[in-house]
């Protein structure tokens, strides 16, 4: 079979190369985490007794090389972050000088081919210990403004996820501020769809709405099955879907994560798992404020349309 | 399946050997740092790769995708990754054209057979091959080969290779929920004892280490019903902007570096 011979061919070429044996000594046997290294004691002690002076130097230089690679990678991330911030500041200054945000939204909305029905904003949990009360107030201001932009674009539902629950503890004040900010915006808006689309559904969720909520939904399902004399075979995806959405928001179409450490990966931080089946997730970790250029960039990406500034 | 057309000349062999040396060195250096215990892959972009390469059918993309899977699996094993989970086929994919599904099933049948007997990688690393998903949805002969592969490798405990076929995460969660509710019906636990940990313990991946990294190729930025529960907390989800057949060690490198640099920063408890 062609595929298995590829594997054996590669292992043969390793053995015939004279310069490779020292790398074989450095193979992962010593540095694996506990589960695997405990299963390979013979190989580990054999390697240690075989280690020569040159092999230890090689080993040390591998550690050094890895640390160097980490530093280089962090430097690259730092440069990329600075570039993003500079670009974002320049574009927001240039664009907002010439046009008001409602005009920008009108222009962008005409170019987008699809708008998310439910937009969710996740505040990264990574900087939870660095945030002061002022930082939280700034986040609340950002979100209230974002709810106005979202309404203007035609988004029907906006939810905000904060794993720690700090935002939820401020819920009453946040709701008050959000409703009044949006109300003011709608009053001043020249949007023709105002009457059809009078407001935006807004909710705040936290970690308890994630996996623990699923646990509670399963309890309700078990009770429902018992009370209606049904069997376990009557449980299907649709039934579970019904119970999961019983007391919660709909499945988000687009998620924006922001205010975290700069990295390429995204972390869901316990967002309700059932809801994320088809959600598009944008990485905004390097943004610490939710400004309009970032907001519109996410919508353009969702719409798969190329973003162009100015008319 | 298409075999190699020309035997490689001396220059190509030298280049391949140099590439091997550099890859081996990179793997050796990376292994000095922490390595994720469980990595998941969404193998997306095979058909677009075929289109980009100018092939007249998507079969080329799927075949190249399978070859790349073997290479990536070997890299993971060399690095010391304990469990690898791949999204081979979604229950939604049954909606594709009959010719494509037939080709995929044929590819799966041949691929699963390579795991059945005397696979060098499986033997060297003691890999237990597991199929996650309801095998009854597959054609009988493919399901039979899959069961045989699982049976033949069931005593391999050191590493795990999960093939999700046919699978959706909601289907997996629903199955876990059904098992949990069954426990209540059988009076093995009380209704009040149901919580999210019970669901987690009944997922297909309950015997694997927690998912550390989830990689999706082809530039799409969604999970498409894959490992929704497992990737929910403490998992780094990486969206890579290349098609799966193009996913080499060099595309994998930044993912591993980010894991090494960032994974200790945050504990799971809030």
TrEMBL record, chain A:
Q: What class of enzyme is it?
A: transferase
Q: Which residues cross the membrane?
A: 63-84
What residue ranges carry the coiled-coil annotation? none
Q: What does this protein need as cofactor?
A: Mg(2+)
Q: What are its E.C. numbers?
A: 2.5.1.87
In terms of domain of life, where is this protein from?
Eukaryota
Which pathway does the database say it acts in?
A: Protein modification; protein glycosylation
Arranged from A to Z, the UniProt key words for this protein are:
Endoplasmic reticulum, Magnesium, Membrane, Transferase, Transmembrane, Transmembrane helix
| Localization of this protein | Endoplasmic reticulum membrane
Instruction: Kindly list the GO CC terms recorded for this protein.
Output: dehydrodolichyl diphosphate synthase complex; endoplasmic reticulum membrane
Entry GO MF terms:
ditrans,polycis-polyprenyl diphosphate synthase [(2E,6E)-farnesyl diphosphate specific] activity
- Which catalytic reaction applies to this protein? n isopentenyl diphosphate + (2E,6E)-farnesyl diphosphate = a di-trans,poly-cis-polyprenyl diphosphate + n diphosphate
* Family stated for the protein in its record: Belongs to the UPP synthase family.
Q: Which PANTHER family match?
A: DEHYDRODOLICHYL DIPHOSPHATE SYNTHASE COMPLEX SUBUNIT NUS1
Protein known as: ditrans,polycis-polyprenyl diphosphate synthase [(2E,6E)-farnesyldiphosphate specific]
| Protein source organism | Phycomyces blakesleeanus (strain ATCC 8743b / DSM 1359 / FGSC 10004 / NBRC 33097 / NRRL 1555)
UniProtKB/TrEMBL annotation, chain B:
Q: Which UniProt keywords apply?
A: Magnesium, Transferase
Q: Which domain of life is it from?
A: Eukaryota
| One GO CC term on file | membrane
The answer to whether UniProt assigns keyword Nucleotide-binding to this entry is no
Give an example GO biological process. Answer: polyprenol biosynthetic process
As one GO molecular function, the record gives: ditrans,polycis-polyprenyl diphosphate synthase [(2E,6E)-farnesyl diphosphate specific] activity
> Per its UniProt record, what Gene3D superfamilies does this chain match?
Decaprenyl diphosphate synthase-like (3.40.1180.10)
Matching entries from PROSITE patterns are given as:
UPP_SYNTHASE (PS01066)
Pfam (any one): Prenyltransf
Q: What is its EC number?
A: 2.5.1.-
The family database entries (NCBIfam families) matched by this protein are listed as:
uppS (TIGR00055)
Tell me which family the UniProt entry assigns to this protein: Belongs to the UPP synthase family.
The record's annotation in HAMAP family points to: ISPT (MF_01139)
What is this protein's record name?
Answer: Alkyl transferase
């Amino acid at each position: 079979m062609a595929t298995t011979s590829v594997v054996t061919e590669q292992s043969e070429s390793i053995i015939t190369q004279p310069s490779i044996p020292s790398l074989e000594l450095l193979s992962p046997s010593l540095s694996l985490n506990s589960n695997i290294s405990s299963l390979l004691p013979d190989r580990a002690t054999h390697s240690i007794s075989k280690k020569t002076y040159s092999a230890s130097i090689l080993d040390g230089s591998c550690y050094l090389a890895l640390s160097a690679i980490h530093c280089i990678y962090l430097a690259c991330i730092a440069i990329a972050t600075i570039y993003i911030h500079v670009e974002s500041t320049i574009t927001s200054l240039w664009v907002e000088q010439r046009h008001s945000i409602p005009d920008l939204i009108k222009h962008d909305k005409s170019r987008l081919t699809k708008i998310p029905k439910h937009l969710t904003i996740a505040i990264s949990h990574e900087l939870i210990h660095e945030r002061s009360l002022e930082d939280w107030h700034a986040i609340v201001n950002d979100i209230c403004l974002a709810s106005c932009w979202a309404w203007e674009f035609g988004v029907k539902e906006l939810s905000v996820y904060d794993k720690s629950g700090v935002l939820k503890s401020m819920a009453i004040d946040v709701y008050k501020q959000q409703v009044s900010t949006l109300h003011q915006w709608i009053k001043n808006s020249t949007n023709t769809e105002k009457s059809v689309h009078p407001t935006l559904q807004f909710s705040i969720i936290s970690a308890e709405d994630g996996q623990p909520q699923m646990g509670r939904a399963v309890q309700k399902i078990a009770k429902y099955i018992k009370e209606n004399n049904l069997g376990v075979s009557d449980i299907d995806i649709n039934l579970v879907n019904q119970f999961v959405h019983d007391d919660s928001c709909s499945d988000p179409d687009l998620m924006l994560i922001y205010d975290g450490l700069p990295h390429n990966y995204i972390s869901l931080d316990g967002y309700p798992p059932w809801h994320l089946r088809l959600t598009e997730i944008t990485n905004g970790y390097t943004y610490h404020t939710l400004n309009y250029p970032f907001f519109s960039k996410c919508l353009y990406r969702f719409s798969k349309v190329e973003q162009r500034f100015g008319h | 399946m298409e075999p190699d057309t020309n035997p490689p000349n001396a220059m190509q062999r030298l280049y391949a050997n140099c590439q091997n040396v550099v890859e081996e060195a990179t793997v050796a250096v990376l292994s000095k740092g922490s390595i994720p215990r469980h990595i998941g892959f969404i193998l997306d972009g095979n058909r677009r790769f075929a289109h980009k390469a100018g092939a007249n059918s998507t079969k080329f993309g799927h075949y190249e995708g399978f070859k790349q899977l073997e290479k990536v699996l070997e890299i993971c094993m060399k690095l010391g990754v304990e469990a690898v989970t791949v999204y081979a086929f979604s229950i939604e994919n049954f909606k594709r054209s009959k010719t494509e599904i037939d080709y995929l099933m044929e590819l799966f049948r041949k691929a699963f057979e390579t795991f059945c007997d005397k696979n060098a990688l499986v033997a060297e690393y003691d890999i237990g091959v597991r199929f996650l998903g309801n095998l009854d949805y597959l054609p009988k002969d493919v399901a039979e080969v899959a069961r045989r592969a699982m049976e033949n490798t069931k005593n391999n405990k050191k590493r795990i290779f999960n093939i999700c076929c046919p699978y959706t995460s909601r289907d997996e969660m629903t199955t876990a929920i059904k098992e949990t509710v069954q426990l209540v019906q059988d009076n093995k636990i009380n209704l009040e004892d149901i919580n999210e940990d019970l669901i987690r313990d009944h997922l297909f991946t309950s015997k694997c280490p927690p998912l550390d990294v989830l990689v999706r190729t082809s530039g799409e930025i969604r999970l498409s019903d894959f490992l929704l529960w497992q990737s929910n907390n403490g998992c780094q989800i990486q969206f890579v902007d290349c098609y799966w057949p193009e996913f080499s060690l060099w595309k994998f490198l930044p993912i591993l570096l980010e894991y090494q640099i960032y994974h200790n920063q945050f504990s799971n408890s809030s």
